[in-house]
Amino acid sequence: MYKHLLVPIDGTPLTTPVVEQAVEFARDAAARITFFHAQADYGATGDGSLLQAMAPAAFADAAAGNARAWLARAAAAAAAAQVACETLIVVSDRPHEAIVEAASGQGCDLVFMASHGRRGWRGRLAGSVTARVIERSALPVLVCSVESQATQGVEQRALRAIRDEHRSLAAVLRAVQQALHDSPGRTPADARLMRAALFYIQAYPERLHHPKEEQTLFRWLRQRAPDSVAVIEGLEAEHRSGTQAFAELRRALEAYEAGEARGRETFEQALQTFTESQWRHMATEEKLLLPLASRHLLPQDWADVASAFESHADPRFDIEAEQSFDRVFTRLMNLAAAAAPR
Fold first, then answer.
1. CB contact at 8 A, 217 and 284
2. What is the C-alpha separation between 288 and 232, in angstroms, rounded?
3. Are residues 290 and 205 in the same domain?
4. Which residue has the higher pLDDT, 18 or 64?
5. Percent of the chain having pLDDT more than 90?
């Protein structure tokens, strides 16, 4: 049985189902995963070389792109299933060669990837790339079957959107914990990362994710399955207590940044309390609530849920939040990488 999978991902809409299938396969096989992304060499372009000379910090962000965000979500999905994983990014304009080299170099015994037949910078792992990997690899290549976004049912789309948002929150919390771990003793953790992480948690899960759960998923499930009310009410109570715990976390960060006595210890405790409560909450939703919804909700209910989670418009702030919060999340993951010790 295979024990170490290389899973190339490219950030297209099919990344989520590929990651889900790979994590399930690895869990059943008691295997570990290396999630991998081959990133084009931005510095070799005219725009990239100019930006590198004029604004190195901006170049670093542009060169990093979204890869760390994609890999962070994948790692969070593996962690939720208790599957050991690592992530790897290499710069290469020949992704099939980079995949084969990475699989060998990381000691993998299986390449697990998808074929979805489209090329371009948003689809670097296209069918032709998969075919080239199969031709060149000395290792077995398992090509999984995934549906395009256009052919996915509304239930699949809704469930994957909800799980993706859970993975994003988990990745942010893991990044903050790692930053604290990497700055032991009295050394202050990266303040930009801490503040950006708390902004993301307040502005996205608290103001968008939870309200949309209550206004669509919870509302429809209450109507279709009265025996689910106890679970729903427990989750709604956790939304409220989570808001209070977040307020305590924010106050603890302010005390830590101000250098107050025991400020770091208080912040670490507040972060641990908030993180554990969020993980328990997301686990309850994914293990209890979502299966109930799959059994009881009707197609029109799922269409409403999918529409809400895929749009992310927040009328209270008059913004279209999906792209802006994706950028915040990407920036967070790049900040976390920059803050990590070399």
1. no
2. 10
3. yes
4. 18
5. 50
